[in-house]
């Protein structure tokens, strides 16, 4: 990660996830929730402690990012939470992985895991895009189903062991529906990432790097090149055979093709919806004092205590209140002066 300063970003006060969620995400989620066996599988996941297992796995094998240890990365997480108007700051960990990867785990205690490749290959604004994507998953309540999708092999084995091999809750239709929604939820996450970094070129470069462009060629493939390739790829939708090939190819991947993701993101931008959100929620002023002195969590001027650690926050008079006090003081001074003149 280059040690470059983040550009000033608009805080999206009062942002709702429904404002930027991709329709494919919602449609595939509706189908998933109507798939036989999902409710039973979800109950088993909660009963058998999958979340606790994953928490131990991720926190016991990775390095936690804290203000005192890696402030450059931790500050980007805080900035991402501020921009997307999220007061609950997830824990952040780094694992050893050359590729640019990230994921979120934990329904009760949220943690984000970044790959070391993401830290090495992305600059600060691109990392903001990546963290914004994970916060988008949290905002849209994707985490539980995504944990289930990421752990299908573990779940199948667990349920088979518990039922002595007599039961199979993870049926093929359920697997297909779960993995299809998993891929569609990435479109929503990309939108959240763009809202966080607030720069189309930054989002495009992050996607280009995530697609595997070698380090020595970084910067050569521009946004317009990615846009053209995504538009060319869209032309393949003309025939049913091409659609079948694309479905089979994407079924083997946990994420949709990068070029398809870019195409969906550019379409959203060109529709004007992206700028509408920035214009309707934009507040360029940072909140008073911004970060808790004790734990560095973001807070607003209305907060008396930190929502994360309970620390009593410093308060400042607003400009309007200060002007009122100054006006009253001037009036008091004039009154005192008039009384003195009368006595004289």
Q: What is the terminal separation in angstroms?
A: 73 Å
Report the portion of residues in β strands: 5-15%
Number of strands: 6
Regions with little confidence, pLDDT below 50 for 5+ residues: 163-167, 284-288, 317-340
> Main β-sheet, in a few words?
4 strands, mixed
String of helices and strands: EHHHEHEEEHHHHHHHHHHEH
Task: Using the alpha-carbon principal axes, give the shape.
Answer: globular
Which structural category do the helix and sheet elements fall into? alpha+beta
Describe what you observe in this structure.
Helix 6 (124-139) packs across helix 9 (172-197), helix 6 (124-139) crosses helix 10 (200-210) and helix 11 packs across helix 13. Strand 4 and strand 5 form a beta hairpin. It contains 15 helices and 6 strands. The radius of gyration is 25 Å and the shape is globular. It is 57% helix and 6% strand. It has helices at residues 23-33, 38-47, 50-61, 71-83, 116-121, 124-139, 143-150, 152-162, 172-197, 200-210, 223-234, 240-251, 258-270, 273-281, 319-343, and strands at residues 11-12, 63-65, 91-95, 102-105, 111-115, 282-283. It has 344 residues and is an alpha+beta fold. The strands form 2 sheets. It has a 4-stranded mixed β-sheet, with helices on both faces. The chain has a two-stranded antiparallel ribbon with strand order 1-6. The model is unreliable at 163-167, 284-288 and 317-340 (pLDDT under 50).
């Amino acid at each position: 990660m280059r040690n470059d300063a983040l550009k000033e970003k608009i805080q999206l006060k009062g942002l709702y996830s429904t404002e930027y969620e991709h329709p494919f995400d919602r449609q595939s989620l509706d189908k998933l929730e109507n798939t036989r066996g999902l409710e039973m599988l979800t109950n088993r996941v909660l009963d058998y402690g999958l979340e606790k297992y994953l928490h131990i796995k991720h926190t016991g094998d990775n390095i936690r990012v804290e203000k005192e240890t890696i402030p450059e990365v931790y500050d980007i997480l805080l900035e991402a939470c501020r921009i997307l108007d999220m007061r609950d700051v997830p824990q952040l960990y780094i694992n050893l992985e050359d590729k640019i990867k990230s994921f979120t785990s934990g329904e009760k205690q949220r943690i984000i895991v970044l790959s070391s490749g993401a830290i090495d290959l992305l600059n600060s604004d691109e990392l903001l895009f990546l963290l914004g994507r994970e916060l988008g998953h949290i905002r849209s309540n994707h985490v539980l189903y995504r944990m289930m999708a990421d752990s299908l092999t573990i779940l199948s084995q667990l349920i088979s062991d518990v039922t002595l091999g007599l039961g199979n809750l993870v049926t093929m239709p359920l697997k297909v529906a779960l993995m299809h929604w998993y891929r569609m939820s990435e479109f929503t996450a990309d939108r959240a990432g763009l809202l966080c970094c607030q720069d189309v070129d930054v989002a495009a470069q992050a996607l280009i790097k995530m697609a595997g462009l070698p380090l020595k060629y970084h910067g050569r493939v521009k946004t317009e090149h990615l846009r053209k390739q995504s538009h060319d790829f869209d032309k393949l939708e003309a025939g049913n055979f091409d659609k079948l090939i694309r479905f089979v190819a994407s079924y083997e991947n946990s994420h949709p093709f990068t070029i398809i993701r870019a195409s969906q993101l550019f379409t959203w931008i060109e529709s004007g919806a992206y700028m509408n959100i920035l214009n309707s929620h934009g507040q360029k002023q940072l909140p008073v004092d911004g970060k808790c002195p004790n734990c560095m969590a973001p807070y607003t001027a209305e907060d008396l205590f930190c929502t994360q650690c309970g620390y009593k926050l410093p308060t400042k008079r607003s400009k309007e209140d200060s002007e009122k006090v100054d006006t009253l003081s001037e009036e008091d001074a004039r009154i005192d002066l008039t009384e003195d003149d009368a006595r004289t």
